[in-house]
């Protein structure tokens, strides 16, 4: 009776542990090339394998700690630049047109009052209609830039944005009423300022959220 070394290359695999040995082939019970854990050809993973191969038949990548490496998280807002830029520009156009229209209506109303002479002589708004239109357009662009920066540096950008814009809007409405010598001019200017600030407070956040790539 000859003695066979259990560690020799021609030993029969133990069915209880063969599936865990390198080169094990569950179909042919044969061993593949040395160092090839898949027996020279891809085989289906054994039951309960927590790291199944991908659908292309290649062995999955495993990190040193036994877990698949996770992709790096994207930092900053995933904003569609074309959609966001277009939305900001169109918000500026809407704001400029609204400010120009409201200032023109106020000026036309003041002229009618002065022509009638029944309510005294009123002064129009502090600046021309075109000036208010340009200011409204630039304010919308600045609001869009502020929204984007807050997306980069703050944990709750929409909340901070609404607070900042709301406080600036309140100041833009109250300051003319308290500082202008004629109350009528202060009220008319405050109305135009309110029209300029409302689109930045409402349209910019909604447009920005729509431009985010989920």
Q: Gist?
A:
The protein is an all-alpha fold. The chain has helices at 81-116, 129-153, 157-179, 183-211. It is built from 4 helices and no strands.
Mean pLDDT: 76
Helix content: 40-55%
The number of E-state strands comes to: 0
Radius of gyration: 36 Å
Which residues form runs of ≥5 with pLDDT under 50? 29-36, 54-61
Distance between the termini: 72 Å
Basic shape: elongated
Beta-strand portion reads under 5%
Question: Given the structure, what is the number of helices?
Answer: 4
Helix-strand string = HHHH
Category from helices, strands and their pairing = mainly alpha
Largest sheet: none
List keywords for this structure.
4 helices, 53% helix, 0% strand, mainly alpha
Task: Walk me through the structure.
By secondary structure, the chain is an all-alpha fold. Helices cover 53% and strands 0% of the residues. The protein has helices spanning 81-116, 129-153, 157-179, 183-211. Mean pLDDT is 76; it is low at 29-36 and 54-61.
Q: Secondary-structure blueprint of this entry?
A:
Layout: H1 81-116, H2 129-153, H3 157-179, H4 183-211
Helix pairs in contact: 1-2, 1-4, 2-3, 2-4, 3-4
């Amino acid at each position: 009776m000859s003695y066979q070394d259990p560690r020799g290359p021609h030993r029969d695999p133990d069915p209880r542990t063969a599936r865990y040995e390198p080169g094990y082939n569950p179909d042919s019970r044969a061993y593949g090339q040395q160092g090839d854990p898949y027996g020279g050809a891809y085989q289906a993973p054994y039951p309960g394998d927590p790291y199944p191969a991908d659908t292309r038949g290649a062995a999955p990548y495993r990190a040193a700690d036994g877990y698949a490496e996770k992709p790096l998280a994207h930092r900053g807002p995933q904003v569609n630049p074309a959609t966001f830029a277009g939305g900001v520009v169109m918000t500026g156009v809407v704001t400029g047109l609204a400010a120009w229209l409201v200032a023109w209506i106020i000026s036309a109303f003041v002229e009618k009052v002065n022509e009638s002479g029944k309510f005294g002589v009123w002064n129009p708004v502090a600046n021309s209609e075109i000036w208010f239109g340009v200011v409204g357009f630039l304010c919308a662009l600045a609001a869009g830039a502020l929204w984007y920066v807050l997306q980069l540096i703050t944990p709750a950008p929409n909340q901070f944005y609404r607070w900042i814009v709301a406080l600036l809007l309140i100041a833009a409405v109250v300051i003319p009423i308290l500082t202008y010598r004629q109350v009528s001019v202060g009220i008319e200017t405050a109305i135009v300022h309110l029209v300029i600030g409302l689109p930045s407070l409402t349209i910019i956040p909604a447009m920005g959220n729509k431009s985010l790539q989920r």
